[in-house]
Amino acid sequence: MIERRKQMARDKVSRLVNWGHWFAFFNGMLAMIIGSRYISSIGQPDSFISWGYLILSTIGHFTFLAFITYVVFIFPVTLLLPYSKILRGYSAFVASIALYILLYDTVIYDDYGIHLSPFAFDLAWQDLNALLHSTSYIITPVAIVFIELIAANFLWKRIEKIQKKQWGYKVVMFVGTCFVSSHLIHIWADAADVTDITRFDDAYPVSYPATAKTFMESHGVDSSTVVSDIPPHSSSNLSYPLAALQCQAETSPNVLIVTIDGLRADMVDENTMPYLNQYGQKALNFKQHYTGATQFNSSMFTIMYGLQGNYSDKKDFEHIQPVLNTELEKQHYNLALFTSRTPAELSLSGATFNGFKVNISEHNEGRAAADQTNIAHFQQWQQSQNQPWFSIVNLSAPQDYDTPVGFLGIETVKPPMDLKPAEKVLFNQYRQSLHFIDQQLSQLLPTIDDQTLLIITGTYGQVFTSNIDDARRDLSPANVKVPLIISWPQQVQSKVINYRTSHYGIAPTLLSRVLGCTTPSEQYSSGRSLLEPNSEPWIYIGNSREFAIYQENEITVLGRYGKYRIYDKEYKTRLKKKMSAPELIQVMREGRRLYHN
């Protein structure tokens, strides 16, 4: 009798577990229906293979999420309280809450372009009226509860019939095949740069599709050489620019942009960089200038596109070049880039340098020697030009604290900030590298004729650490505040400018003041002309995963996992306060402004 009772109990639990699996599968299908809203936010695929990938990925991902929800929240209760009525009600409640969260995430993603996190939740909560502007968000939750209760009871009454048909194994195999196949297809698409597939990487919440680039590069294969014959997608809902540019330049001056990796604004002084410091006194000197990001590719993206760094993560811009490049080509400029970045590094820049003749100076003796070669190559190229030109010379020695062999530097000094012993060594080595760059500028700038517009800035600042990842994630003023010096012959007199500016303003300034574009900068940029104070009281620095928002009196930093911290404007004290929602909402919507539904 006791054994029979145990067997009946085991059979009951087994039936409940089987019911739970089918209930989870049903909710996976409901999640797919709700998840289709993500596709409308980023645009539908173009090709059959991208449609196939999206279908496989959708089935595999949402059924996986539903099963994980079942395992974590429902399965333990099945063992502790094996009573069907209680379990069905509880499971319907859990499934409804999970679907509510998913539905809320689709709303946030559509409006802000990010998934739920502590930061996104706080932001959306304070913007709830604008987000939930339809009565459907009242009716839908009620409908979900109703559907969940009906489905729970329907499956329970028919679970034995379903078991007899032995569909479970086939469903598991089907879903498993979809899940694995979608990841295998993504590995190929990532290696072959099929953007109509990889652009969906961040579309679904908690989605981490497998990639091949790291594996290929670790085995000596340059993934950038694996090129797909599939053309870039055309059904994206990106509108860049929002309106066609109307441009008519009266003159065609040459333009040179010198970008220096790792150039802090507070290090351009009479001791470390005397030449540049003196040069800045005779030109437009922007004292409150900020980079757009803390890495070369994303920073150059903000310079050339004039867009917030979160756009740099979008796959669309791997094939859509800056409107600045397009207009320069229309006005018959020769474009050239001089850098020590490798082809693999430049491949990560997408279409930022489309139309440029790329001159790479690789040097076994380090970046300082490569910088010397870069300058020499630029000077040779400049002398050979017989029509207007636009050139970028990128110098990288300060990034690696590098100086050439035999370089006679300057005396070491006590750092003006509190540093650890190892950081003090890096500080003084950094000064040596900057002094070397200053000498190179003293040789380069006098060779530039008086009719050339010259812009000198840092791609990003520098923090004194040898850990590259730590430096890239650092969003303090030391790493994002950079100098900006503009020599504008016969146009603008020398002047110290103390209002805040950023890299977003460089492209609009060139387009409006050099290329004669009358189209408002809002149609193609997140920035405004550098020659006018910016009306927005904030600056977005970083990418879509890690970024800081510099406001007038505080700095909000969003970490890798959605947690945010608020600091005072000096970045010294962490403030115990909630975010300033109105301004941050403007920032997030700016990051979606070029996308339409």
Outline the low-pLDDT stretches.
223-233
The tally of strands reads 14
**Helical amount among residues, as a percent range?**
40-55%
Class from secondary-structure proportions: alpha/beta
Please state how the strands of the largest beta sheet are arranged side by side: 5-4-6-1-7-8-2-9
Q: Tell me about the biggest sheet?
A: 8 strands, mixed
Q: Given the structure, what is the number of helices?
A: 19
Ends apart, CA distance between termini: 65 Å
User: What general outline do the C-alpha atoms trace?
Assistant: elongated
Q: What percent of residues are in strands?
A: 5-15%
Overall radius of gyration? 28 Å
The average pLDDT value, as a whole number, equals: 87
